[in-house]
Amino acid sequence: QVQLVESGGGLVQAGGSLRLSCAASGRTFSRYALGWFRQAPGKEREFVAAISWSGISTAYADSVKGRFTISRDDAKNTMYLHMNSLNPEDTAVYYCATDGGGGYYYAVPRIESDYDYWGQGTQVTVSS
């Protein structure tokens, strides 16, 4: 049974920073691309960032590029999302996910259907 557990969310003022973590059990992280998505109130879930299974490639949504950094520590089976210069538009529930595996070493999936396991989400609230 694969389980992903996010942590690190919370309330922060605009301009502040947070680091989200995603810990996995039941699956060896190193074989899979990883991604972060988010869902704001009243909106559909959207892509935030992804990292290839090799760690060589990363991808970001335009709205977070330059402010967020995705990273992975396969020895700890953990992925991170470092978020800087947060603004109220970043308020959302953040989800981590792993893809189905077997992709190219540089592949960074951006579509929800490319991911097969999801965490339960962690709330990030940015006050103005």
List keywords for this structure.
four-stranded antiparallel sheet, 128 residues, seven-stranded mixed sheet
Specify the biggest β-sheet.
7 strands, mixed
What percentage of amino acids are in beta strands? over 45%
Q: Give me the strand/helix succession.
A: EEEEEEEEEEE
Cα-atom Rg, whole angstroms?
14 Å
List how many beta strands DSSP finds: 11
Structural class: mainly beta
Shape descriptor reads globular
Helix proportion: under 10%
User: CA-to-CA gap between the ends?
Assistant: 40 Å
Overall average residue pLDDT: 95
Q: How many H/I helical runs?
A: 0
Low-confidence stretches: none
Question: Can you offer a commentary on this structure?
Answer:
The chain is mainly beta and 128 residues long. The protein has strands at residues 3-7, 10-13, 18-25, 34-39, 46-51, 58-60, 68-73, 78-83, 92-99, 115-118, 122-127. The mean pLDDT is 95. The chain contains no helices and eleven strands. It starts with a strand and ends with a strand. A hairpin with a 6-residue loop joins strand 5 and strand 6 (58-60). The strands form two sheets. Strands 2, 4, 5, 6, 9, 10 and 11 form a seven-stranded mixed sheet that branches. Strands 1-3-8-7 form a four-stranded antiparallel sheet, with no helix packed on it.
